[in-house]
Write a structure and sequence with these properties.
It is built from 20 helices and 26 strands. By secondary structure, the chain is an alpha+beta fold. Bound molecules: 3-[3-(1H-pyrrolo[2,3-b]pyridin-5-yl)phenyl]propanoic acid (0RA).
Amino acid sequence: MKAPLKPTEIEKINYDAASIQVLEGLEAVRKRPAMYIGDVSSKGLHHLVYEVLDNSIDEAMGGYCDQIDVIINEDGSVTVVDNGRGIPVDIHEKEGRSALEVVMTVLHAGGKFNKDTYKVSGGLHGVGVSCVNALSSHMKVEVHRNNSIHVQEYRKGVPLYPVKETGTTDIRGTKVTFTPDGGIFQLTDFNYEILTNRLRELSFLNKGVKLSLTDMRQRDENGQPVKDVYFSEKGLVEFVEYLDDTREKLIENTIFMYSEKSGIPVEVAMQYNASFTENVQAYVNNINTIEGGTHLAGFRRALTRTLKNYAEKSGMLSKLKFEINGDDFREGLTAVISVKVAEPQFEGQTKTKLGNSEVSGAVDQSVSEMLTNYLEENPRDAKTIVNKVILAATARHAARKARELVQRKNVLTNTGLPGKLSDCSENDPAKCEIFLVEGDSAGGTAKQGRDRRFQAILPLRGKILNVEKAMPHKIFDNEEIKTIFTALGLSIGTDDDSKALNIEKLRYHKVIIMTDADVDGSHIATLLLTFFFRYMREMIELGYIYIATPPFYLIKKGKEERYAWTEEERKQIVAELSKNGKESGIHIQRYKGLGEMNAEQLWETTMKPEFRKLRQVDIENAAEANRTFSMLMGDEVPPRREFIEKNAKYANIDA
Ligand code: 0RA
């Protein structure tokens, strides 16, 4: 008979069992990182920072923290520091080791621990800091708590030593530094622009929290590290004002509403502007739900019903000879809606569509009540809004007439396909592709280079209409836009839905945007994407829109010609070509535009299906383009050149 185990031995066994489980968990994350963070591209990489940040934001939402600093260190690691309570460091009874170690190494442990704060950042994020740890070649956590500094370090999620105390402190908080694992991620360079945008967004969504981003890799003109600080006193109201920065607002004070129904806090800020576009950004637990969902549906329903009731009661609609529809209530509307949901269900292509059915009613009720009160109390604003709605309905009515006219003309003259289109011979849409090419000259080259059996070419002249500024019926008057619709085989809207597409008539299942790799080119691509996002969204959802990626370099040595899409590829090729000897005789050409390639080169590098690298546009890319575009093209301010140039640079790097 065995002697009974002594307590220390029991602890040891528990510890070993727990350790095995931890290793299995970490292994799972490293084997299928995409399951936890979406992907291992730039998106997944930045997701790591959001994940760590989320924990600090949770601390802030609980009211325990008002400052969060993010630092991109010189060695490429990232540090997130907060002045919250600090992760608990006492011995976790069940696990027999420091709670800190458990939070940092056990999947999904963080949330379970933190019961007293209103933990909401589940879903898309919320996989936990342990997941980031597993995907980091190195991580270090430093907790200031109970007047002591507690430290632990990890390699690929495995602790290098037990939690140790390294000194005394009189502050509280948590500091996490991690280096993303280069063996997991395609790239490990953090992009300042991406992170700063997220911090700005978080500051609007969490008023009163001071957020900062410091980039130790870059210096400003004073020799200081590049830094941005974000702090929003008025939260969503400032968010809406930021979004509408370049637009003429219609009501003096941005409307703000907050209430809670069925345990779901709902926060809304809204403003109407003189433009014709709707810009409603919806958030669930600080996540931008670009595919919408039940919260957005509830908001829209409440908005339409409440405004309609008010307008009817006020008698302002008595002279109107046609129906008002849902779109009319949202023309020129900029709004941000933010809800907190305890167990969010995310659906859709990019998992950014809220599925929880109970949220729809809660938001509808909240918004109806608050907006009804607002309209009663602010009759002047109410009147302005209703007038705007009437204007939208009138314009839509005019657009319908214009459309009918165009369609009738088309039938009469039987123009068929646009003259500029070089069509392909194949008839099966599933096998056909169309290239939308910037400029007649590149269009000519593409026409020569293509495989005419299944590739059609449509050259576009210069920039298509600014869809931001134009009235809807003007959009359908625009030649370039009409040409695109006609070439694709689509007609432009129906009576009651100006955005309905007769997708079954679509003539090509690949629509490929091909522009120069320079500022103007990326501007045109942004413009086209925005156009597809706003007027042909279904095409994006079906995965029919692509972006061509012409190479950036041609590297020649003797008769050998090689192409490179990135700086790294270029270096690699130069190294290969200079293998048996010198680098001399190698000629490198930097392509600035499609026009610098001849037909064969364009075919070989950018059009030939076996070789080209098309980027499929998803709804997220398109929404991003739309945001960029809205910001650049608002009413008054001239295009922000600097912004365009910066982004063009990043577009190049990404491609
Ligand atoms: C678990 C429990 C408590 C706080 C935290 C986790 C916490 C986690 C992170 C991650 C980054 N910063 C953080 N700050 C806090 C509650 C601790 C208590 O009751 O004092």
